[in-house]
Design goal:
222 residues; alpha/beta; Rossmann fold; putative n-type atp pyrophosphatase, domain 2; 2 domains; five-stranded parallel sheet; four-stranded antiparallel sheet; 6 helices; 32% helix; 30% strand; globular
């Protein structure tokens, strides 16, 4: 069945996409990305909308970017999914791991729009997720961190074995960042036709977190 992936540009959605693609029942045809009202950045991770479009191009998939405020998020999400349903989309792929409240929300809105939800990462061990991401050859970079949990020195770090070791050494930090400790951007790997190089960045403090502002990037051959 044809499906979209709920997309933020990060590792969990990417790995869910990767695992769903290995399932012959699911054919991924769209990335669905909810962005800010002004259309400049993703609603969840703060990644620029333009960079996410470049990422989608590198993956060889069309991306649907829907503007929304937090208060209208559910309404706009359901409207967009309903349009996709009319185009023959039957399923959605989500990167949830074990937050039951969010899974309940996804299952409800999917039920209301006639879409079947898939959760390829559900109940996986955190370290297994991280190691599968790395072993599969994906390249992910930390692009946001919660200020009370992780400092600006974590921005720009590659997610690799050293990252896992250092994060485990802190104690009390979710390895996958499920409590919002950090967010990531995936720039290359087996699903990609091209690779994205983050060539110019700066660290910016906003609200309760730090963000890696990607000022320039290059699209390269794999």
């Amino acid at each position: 069945m044809k499906a979209f992936v709920s997309w933020s540009g990060g590792k969990d959605g990417l790995l869910a996409f990767y695992k769903a693609k290995q399932d012959r029942e699911v054919e991924i045809v769209y990335l669905l990305n909810m962005i800010s009202e002004d259309g400049t950045h993703s609603r969840t991770h703060g990644i620029s909308a333009a960079l996410l479009r470049a990422q989608a191009d590198a993956l060889g998939l069309p991306i649907i970017q829907k503007k929304t405020a937090w208060g209208d998020y559910e309404e706009e999400f359901k409207k967009t999914v309903s349009v996709l349903k009319k185009e023959g989309i039957q399923a959605g792929v989500f990167g949830d791991i074990d937050l039951q409240e969010h899974r309940d929300w996804v299952e409800r809105v999917c039920s209301e729009t006639g879409i079947k939800p898939f959760f390829p990462l559900w109940q996986m061990e955190r370290e297994d997720i991280m190691r599968e991401l790395i072993a599969s050859g994906f390249e992910a970079t930390v692009v946001a961190s919660k200020r009370d949990e992780l400092g600006p020195e974590w921005l720009g770090r590659k997610i690799d074995e050293a990252f896992i070791k250092d994060l485990k050494g802190l104690g009390g930090i979710d390895l996958c960042g499920e409590a919002g400790e950090y967010h990531s951007f995936v720039s290359g790997g087996p699903l990609f036709n091209k690779k994205i190089e983050l060539s110019k960045t700066r660290k910016v403090k906003k609200d309760i977190g730090w963000f890696l502002d990607v000022m320039d990037y290059e699209i390269c051959a794999k």
